[in-house]
Amino acid sequence: MSVTGRWNANKKFLDRAINRGDEFKLATPFNAETASGYFKKEIEYLLDQGYKLSEDGTRIFK
Amino acid sequence: MVKRLLNTLDEKILEELDSHDFELVKEEKSGSFDNELLIFESQELEVRIARDRGDVSIQVSSEDLGNQWLELPAVLKLIDPGKLPEPKMDDLLKALLVHQKTISFLLEEGQKEETLEQIKKNRIEANRKFFESRGK
């Protein structure tokens, strides 16, 4: 799958979860200093959609 | 030795893992996202190299840490707080081999609580700065 195709598939999954108002428990706690690639992109996308990150970086919720 | 994920890594580094008594104990490939997972073990440390949707990451654990895996850059930052490790996988693996003994110590029973607490503090601080910069 191409990089764009991969992100589109991912975004579709996230959009469905956002519409349901799902909370995400992060298997890897988010650390803005060391996170990269898709993981960071997903977190930034969720934050742009109004989600909030827990202080310890382990959950992201509406 | 596993070639596909490791195409993104320098084979010499992987040979170095071998020569530092790390043994490949698990290899998984799955899914349409082309994900892969490798786990290496030595006497003191466990190293997990994962490719998740194209992103490669390295995590470490130990027997004393149980099922918990820590991001290698976060652990290396405890060893050299002034220097954020290079995100390149080859550089991270080199740093792992250089600091193997110290990393093992940080993950030992009696030390691991302080390690986990410090990693959490660093993460909270990094995320605070990240949100400040997003707010600008």
Report on this model:
The complex is a heterodimer of chains A (62) and B (136). Chain A has 62 residues and is mainly α. Chain A has 2 helices and 3 strands; from the N terminus they run H-E-H-E-E. Chain A has helices at 3-20, 37-48, and strands at 24-25, 52-53, 59-61. Chain A starts with a helix and ends with a strand. Chain B is α+β, with helices and mostly antiparallel strands and 136 residues long. Chain B is 43% helix and 23% strand. The termini of chain B are far apart. The A-B interface holds A 1, 3, 6, 10, 28-34, 36-39, 47, 53, 55-57 and B 32-34, 52-55, 57, 59, 69, 71, 73-74, 77, 84, 87, 120, 122-124, 126-127, 129-131, 134.
Percent helix of chain B? 40-55%
Give the biggest beta sheet of chain B: 5 strands, antiparallel
Catalogue the unreliable spans of chain B. Answer: none
Strand proportion of chain A:
5-15%
Query: What is the 3D form of chain B?
Result: globular
Quickly give the structural class of chain A.
Answer: mainly alpha
- Residue fraction in strands of chain B: 15-25%
* CA-CA gap between termini of chain A: 30 Å
**In terms of per-residue confidence, which ranges of chain A show pLDDT below 50 for 5 or more consecutive residues?**
none
| Rg from Cα of chain B | 16 Å
Throw out a few tags for this protein.
heterodimer, A: 62 residues, mainly alpha, 3-stranded antiparallel sheet, 2 helices, 11% strand, globular, B: 136 residues, alpha+beta, 5-stranded antiparallel sheet, 43% helix
Quick description:
The complex is a heterodimer of chains A (62) and B (136). Helix content of chain A is 48%, strand content 11%.
Give the helix/strand layout:
The complex is a heterodimer of chains A (62) and B (136).
Chain A: H1 3-20, E1 24-25, H2 37-48, E2 52-53, E3 59-61
Antiparallel strand pairs in A: 1-3, 2-3
Chain B: H1 11-19, E1 23-30, E2 35-41, E3 46-52, E4 55-61, E5 70-71, H2 72-79, H3 89-98, H4 100-106, H5 112-135
Antiparallel strand pairs in B: 1-2, 2-3, 3-4, 4-5
Helix pairs in contact in B: 1-3
